[in-house]
């Protein structure tokens, strides 16, 4: 259960990075980097959730 909660937290964190409004702040130049990190985080944690779900499905 703890691994599931961590993966969902990482997925939500990546989504928050994708939706972070950095226009008009000192982080404006880092907008492509923040979007890239958010996209990678969402992809990795979604894949981890799918993998653990399929693994548990065939295990039980």
UniProtKB/TrEMBL annotation:
- Does the keyword section mention Transmembrane helix? yes
The membrane-spanning stretches of this chain are 36-54
Keywords linked to the UniProt accession: Membrane, Transmembrane, Transmembrane helix
Protein's name in the database:
DUF1232 domain-containing protein
**Species the sequence originates in:** Brevibacillus porteri
* Lineage, highest ranks first: Bacteria, Bacillati, Bacillota, Bacilli, Bacillales
